[in-house]
Structure formats: structure tokens, C-alpha cells
Amino acid sequence: MKEKEAMLFLGFLGKAVLMMTVISIFGWNGVKGHRVLLDTDMGTDDIFALLYLLKLNPSQIDLQAVTISTNAWSDAGHAVNQVYDILYMMGRDDIAVGVGGEGGILPDSTILPNVGGYLPMIDQGNGTAGYCRYRQTIPVGHGGRLDIDSNYGFRKSFLPQGMRTYSPLRQPTAQKVMIETISAGPTVVFLIGSLTNFALFLLSNPHLKKNVEHIYIMGGGIRSKNPKGCCPDNASPSCQPQQCGDHGNLFTDFSSNPYAEFNIFMDPFAAYQVIYSDIPITIVPLDATNTILVNKNFLETFEKNQHTYEAQYCFKSLKIIRDTWFDDQFYRSYFMWDSFMSGISASIMRKQHNHQGENEFAEMEYINVTVVTSNKPYGVSDGSNPFFDGSKTPRFNLERNGVHSGHVQTRLRDPFCIVKNGRGRCQDGYTKGVNKPGGVPVLVAVRAKPNRNASSILDREFSVSFLDVLNQAEHTGRFNFTTQFPYYREAFYKPDLRGKNFGKNLVFDMDMSAGDFLSLFYLLKLPVEDINLKAIIVSPTGWANAATIDCVYDLLHMMGRDDIPVGLGDGFAMNQSDTVFSAVGDCRYSKVIPQGSGGYLDSDTLYGLARSLPRSPRRIY
User: Residue 137 CB: number of other CB atoms within 10 A?
Assistant: First the structure.
């Protein structure tokens, strides 16, 4: 009997060892179950990338965490709640979400815990307020952060609402989520926003670098030639090419810097730290994304293939971008950026020991790359570079005459960068191909592969995969807002004021801070015989971002006052918008407002309470 029990025990032990070996081989070495952390700024193309990853088989690509890049195309409060809602729709409330943090960097370069990543490292002090050196190249209104934060006005009308939401003092920070995720085991990191969060992680946690298996980056332009802004073949002699042939895509400031791509430009020094981290890196730059347009055939095919909630959400996003594009060149200007990187990365990761980056969607090549963080001549102090100016010892132990010691682009139309009758000379954020030594060999996607099916109207292999993956029945979204709440109806509530003797007419101008909302509540509770609130003007130059206007609509809806018109003010203080491209401008005054707790993050979410308001049928669009 004892011998039989011993044999059973040995058999069980053998199976356990075999199972652990299989888990070790397939889960640890990367054939299956790659643990992925995604750092994103939640632009529209980031939504496509996130949903594409969520649709893949978790036994191969296992998304563990999402962290929010807060110094690029979206604002923290709006971005984090959109992530929560997307994950809830997809049944993935198990995925950790991190955003912001109140830490800072001291003058002696000590990085405090939980730096929020709201500012580029060169301007990061001990707090979350600061100047928009690079971010001012991103439009704040339509076509920029307003549209991204609200997903063109229909985010709240489509996405369901789960239990998770931003809550002050309870929301995990980006750094906390990165540390916990990467500490748990080997992790692949996807970076599809600015690289600030991850650079801070690497500098603060060098002992965890060994757990980062690979870094995939969407960003930069190495040999790329911008196809936008070119004169057509039949153009008149008066046609002046704009960005045509530039390496970068800073469409708001190409006259100063024709070399940089937005993700890298938002924090060139952070990008440099990541590139030189000695971790294997794959970059999907503009070189590749410029070869995969969202063309008319793709959009028309997409319109006919919306069989899941996630496909519907992506199509609606893409269609409204097309419909509101600033000129008639959408089909020559909009590319598959972050989603393309997700597809390439996932395809590479499915193959074991795939050092050459073989994949279904893009041709790959090793290129020696560096990131330009300052402009020559080096070692000249001109007040533009906080790493060196006014300090006896350069920050982060940088070399006084090294590559980081030159002029750093300070703002839009920086006079240093402007060359009369020539191309801008600033190269901040340029992912430059260089000869050895001096650069880092990285695997680079150089062009999209054509569709193997020559009879298809879709011209790229990934275009087919993107639509197939979004529409597959597996790992699909459970519901949208209207199917989550089937009895919800869009209704406009207006009070019956017939026979009332109105008091003083009032127009309320508010900046959407918490105090302003309390004032609005008070005004709405007053008898109309005393105060007749005729209209509300929302100012996005104060304590909240423009997309928070949706909270005003929701509050009025709750109070039964959908009759009160709401207007959105200008996105800039007087004389702060750019004279060349008015959608962008300076933050001379708003830079004093904290971007984290007690500032924009809390105002944009009403300290987490905005999600408790009913959803108004009125939106920014």
C-alpha cells in the first residue's frame, strides 16, 4: 500500500515538474504569454492600438497594465477614464491602470517617487506645474486635445461605464503600476506616447531593468520623407511646398523643426535615456507608418465591417476625423501609427528567438540611431537649457560640452531655429541615423508590406489584419452604453417657465473649477424670479481643460436645464495664440496651474465625481 502511495506521489510530482517546465518555457521565454505593459497618450490611434491588443489571444500577448502618458495629446483625467471604460467594455477590469503622480525632480537631480510625467524631464521641478516647452506644438482645441479628450464628442455616448474610475488619493500612479508590473516578471514594454514615464522608471529603478525583455516604440523619423504638404504634379507655379520631404511631422512648427516626430519631440531627453538603456529596442518610425495610409478603400471597407462594439467605436472615431479634417487631403495625410506598431510587435513576438524581427506586416532593418536633445554649438549657455544654465554642476552628471549641452528649443518659432528663406535648423527630438560609434543599433520598421492578396482593394497586409482582428468573435466587447442601459433615452429637459416674472438676466462665465461648479449649482437653485440664468460661457484657459465642458452639460441635464445654452471660449489667453497657426500657442499664464492633484486632473474629473452625473444628450459636437 505504501509503495502504491509512493508511486502515485512520484507520478503527481513528475506531472507537477513537467507543468512547471512547460510554464517556464512558454510563459517565461516568450513563445506564449508575453506580459505586456502599454504606455499611451490615448490619442485616437492609441485607442486603435489598445483595442487591437485586447483582441489578441492572451495566451500569446497578455496585456498586464496600461499607463497614461500625460504630456502629449490628451489630458490625464479624461484619458484615464476613457481607458477604464474601454477595458470595462472589453471585460478586462483585471488590467492595472496608472496615471500621474505628485513626485518631482530636485535641483540635485534626485528623482522623487511617483513623478507624474506631466512635464518633460528638462523642465520637471518639484511639482506638477510647469512650462509647455514642447507640448505647445499640439493644438488645444479642435484637431487637438479637446477632440482627443472627448473622442470627438461621442466617447460618453458610446462607451459603457464600469465601476473603476479616477478617484483622488486612490488612483494608482503611472510609476507605481510600472514598478509592480515589471517587478512581477519579464515584461515587454510598448511605448506609443511620449517616453517620459518609462525614462523616469529606468532612472529610478535600475535594478528592474533586467525584467524588461524588449521595448517597442512608435515614434521618430529616421530616413522618412513627409508626403504631406507637397505640390501636386499639376500644381501652379505659386504652390509653395510645406512639410514635403521633412523627416518629422510637427505640422504646427515645421518651419522651426522639420526633423522631429511628436512622440519623441515631447521629451527628447527621455527618449535618449530609453534608446541608450541597453535594452533591446524595436522602433516603428514615420519611415514605416508613412507607407500605410488610411485611404478611401480602407475606410469604405471598414464601414461595411463593423461586427463588434470595438470595431464600431474605431470606425466612428475614424469617420469623424475624416469628416472634420482641416483640408481635403485626409486620405493623403492620415496614417496607421500606433495600431501598426502593435501589429508589427505582436507578429514579431509570436516567433521564438526572432532577433531579425521577422513579421507579417513590415520590412525590418537594423540601423544605428541616436536622439538629438540639443543643437550645436555645444557648451554655449544661452538660457535655453536648464540642465546647464545657472548651475555649477550640470544636472544628471551630464558632460558640460556633451551632446545635451547645446541650445534646446524653447517654444514655437524659437528665433534660434528659424532660418530666413530656409529649412528650420532645430533638431530636438530627431531620431537620427548615425555611423558607429555614437549610436545604438535598433531594429527599425522601414516600410509596410503589401497585401499578399493582389485582388483585394486593401493595399497593405496589416490593413487586412486590423479589420479581421477587430471583427473577430473572440475576446469581443460585451456591450456599449445603450446596450448596457437599454432603458436610457436621450431626452432634453426644459422647465415650464410660462407665466414667470423673470428677475435679472445673468450670463455666467466659468473656468470649470470645483468652486465654479458649486457656484453654478447655487445659481440654478435660485428662483428665476430673482436670477434668470440665460447662458453659460466656459473658459478653457483656467483650472480645467476644454473637454470638461461635457460636465457642464451633464450638470445642466441633471438639473433639468437643457434649455440653457453653453458656449466654449477661446483656448488661449489674449495674445498667446500663435500668429502663424492659431490652433497652438503659449501657456505663459496657465503654466502656474498644477496638472495633477488639486489642478487639472481633479477639475477635469470633478474630483472623481463627474462620472456620477447623468449623461446629457448635449456634447461638445
Answer: 25
